[in-house]
Amino acid sequence: MTVPGIISGSSEVTSSPRERKIIVANTLPLQSKRDSETGKWSFSWDEDSLQLQLKDGFPPETEFLYVGSLNAHVEPNEQEAVSQTLLTGFNSVATFLPKDLQEMYYRGFCKHQLWPLFHYMLPMFPDHGDRFDRKLWQAYVSANKIFSDRVMEVINPEDDYVWIQDYHLMVLPTFLRKRFNRIKLGFFLHSPFPSSEIYRTLPVRDEILRGLLNCDLIGFHTFDYARHFLSCCSRMLGLDYQSKRGHIGLDYFGRTVFIKILPVGVHMGRLESVLNLPSAAAKIKEIQEEFKGKKLVLGIDDMDIFKGISLKLLAMESLFETYWHLRGKVVLVQIVNPARTSGKDVEEAKRETYVTAKRINERYGSVDYKPIVLIDRLVPRYEKSAYYAAADCCLVNAVRDGMNLVPYKYIVCRQGGSLVNDSSPRTSSLVVSEFIGCSPSLSGAIRVNPWDVDDVAQAVNSALKMSEAEKQLRHEKHYHYISTHDVGYWAKSFMQDLERACKDHYSKRCWGIGFGLGFRVLSLSPSFRKLSVEHIVPVYRKAQRRAIFLDYDGTLVPESSITQDPSAEVLSVLKALCEDNKNTVFIVSGRGPESLSEWLSPCENLGIAAEHGYFIRWNSKKEWETCYASTGTEWKAMVEPVMRSYMEATDGSSIEFKESALVWHHQDADPDFGSCQAKELLDHLESVLANEPVVVKRGQHIVEVKPQGVSKGLAAEKVIREMVERGEPPEMVICIGDDRSDEDMFEGMLSTVTNPELLIQPEVFACTVGRKPSKAKYFLDDVADVLKLLKGLGDSSSSLKTTSHTEVAFESII
């Protein structure tokens, strides 16, 4: 077994024959029943459970282990026996939550705080939603901890893959990652993820985001949901994402957290088997006979405020009002599934539904005709399948829904198998809300805004009068997609991506950092380590010539500092280093020569490479020089108006004018808009400057245009070459920086010192600031660490100087 933070002997990870998939969800895929007479428990598989159906995507020999709660309360004295039964008979591990904790966790935080928020409902008033309650949040965390304890009891962290389902367990990844740094962990969110404007109102927003980021792969139904999540990570945690060979990845402390976008599918076999039951066939005939001569529009929804049932009824009312010829010829059968939650909102929605249906039936109905048929009871699956198969049109009008598989089920049942007249082509008509997760995948459906009841009425009319040929083409397109993207395909695709996301787990070193729900894992190259004073001083003392290159912003001065001039401590450290004749010390910065020379004037022997090395000065007594041929200023006249137009269009952005470059900054702009504008500006400038001797680069919150060949790497190379030409080749090179431009310096410096033409082999210490992937071999945590290291070197220089003076004095006495 591999201990977290320690690399195993081999870099190759071989799959274990006992590799399992551990599926963790709020509830187990089981049905529980207790005999009222004997008191004995009996359990059976819930064939409609997604956790059970996803097995279809894997070979039969794949082992699955399920972790979750039962849908019934088990007394503490029975829990051990029930646990053993479930583990041996169903490969299931039950999480028994105390009644009060279950109520606060599920009914409280999940259903009355997270679920409404994720569906864009804010508790603006106490009567319209529950305000955030810290006790409920603590219950949520406690429940997630219990789930993690149960997973830890059964997991083999080296081999098993853990797949967590839905918003009930969003901080579970933190507990698991804290215990096993290299755990293979995936998460799929089955609800919508709200926009950042909504999500940021949640007081525990950072804890939940960091919980999800402790996964290796996070799945969403649609790109919109993923985009909202990425936007929240950018705005609240300052994380950027990028696409790597078609896969979206977030860099999170050296780990790449991948994003998966794929809507879940239906279980084709389950639907078809129910449809082929004799009871389903009889029900289809009954429905067809009951609504003979009429067009049947079907709606199947849970009774809650987001399914839009009342809006659907208003749309039907508008249909009968506008298209009077459809009166008596169209019937909406609305099956209302029992509400999953209770509360004032649900009661209001139910009351409005009945009042509206009654009004429509009274106005447009007759003795033998009811335009609205409400079925408000627990409808068996065969009966729903029969209605799907018999309906001419399916209307899904939810105002917000994570996925909603009703349209998929309708299409599969309309295909019908042996239950529909085999000689007739299969047809279907779909009218779906644009606010549900399945909408993007149903390109042949008529998409509507559910709030616009007249538009929905018009869409239903269009669907009903659509030609048979068009309905057939749309149906074939939908059926092909749904049948090839079923639940098995979804599960297999997710697991393949999870395996790919975890393949580098054992090629890096891991450290756990942070406390509580702020815990995360730092994952870096095995050769990447912290640079300590104790490690570098012996080499420093031994070297007769040293070259020291230091970045300015983010290395000597914090990026967040309001005042950018150096502190007294920085000046003192630099002066101590420069006073050692064995040292050649350079500040290599993107800043202009005027500000750097003014700020660093107390350090007379300090070299400065300004504007990324375009200007170089060896000390304060020397003149500024440049080794770059003049490119003229014509390109600046082309760049400035383009940058200015983007600055005027992007609030918070600015332009920095340098001698050698023009820089557009967007650090103070809206993160999403600024990033979008930066990409557009980059493309715009590249096309404008295609034939000019300049390069356009995008950095951290900047877009910069500068002459070709100007970089910190070339500046470092110039200094080292000149030292060699003077007969003072460096025996030690120290290079410290914190951002992308410093990576050029690390790369350029390393290629220079390994150049056989220079005949030098110095000890190289390339060091980045912050624990992050880098071309440098070493890291320091922050500016304070940098100053501590430099002070140690300065003190070493002083002690060497004192020792030298003492030896000279002793020799003169002799």
Automatic annotation (TrEMBL):
<dbReference type="GO" id="GO:0005992">
    <property type="term" value="P:trehalose biosynthetic process"/>
</dbReference>
<protein>
    <recommendedName>
        <fullName>alpha,alpha-trehalose-phosphate synthase (UDP-forming)</fullName>
        <ecNumber>2.4.1.15</ecNumber>
    </recommendedName>
</protein>
<dbReference type="InterPro" id="IPR036412">
    <property type="entry name" value="HAD-like_sf"/>
</dbReference>
<comment type="similarity">
    <text>In the N-terminal section; belongs to the glycosyltransferase 20 family.</text>
</comment>
<dbReference type="Pfam" id="PF02358">
    <property type="entry name" value="Trehalose_PPase"/>
</dbReference>
<keyword id="KW-0808">Transferase</keyword>
<dbReference type="InterPro" id="IPR023214">
    <property type="entry name" value="HAD_sf"/>
</dbReference>
<dbReference type="Pfam" id="PF00982">
    <property type="entry name" value="Glyco_transf_20"/>
</dbReference>
<comment type="similarity">
    <text>In the C-terminal section; belongs to the trehalose phosphatase family.</text>
</comment>
<dbReference type="InterPro" id="IPR006379">
    <property type="entry name" value="HAD-SF_hydro_IIB"/>
</dbReference>
<keyword id="KW-0328">Glycosyltransferase</keyword>
<dbReference type="GO" id="GO:0003825">
    <property type="term" value="F:alpha,alpha-trehalose-phosphate synthase (UDP-forming) activity"/>
</dbReference>
<dbReference type="InterPro" id="IPR001830">
    <property type="entry name" value="Glyco_trans_20"/>
</dbReference>
<keyword id="KW-0597">Phosphoprotein</keyword>
<dbReference type="InterPro" id="IPR003337">
    <property type="entry name" value="Trehalose_PPase"/>
</dbReference>
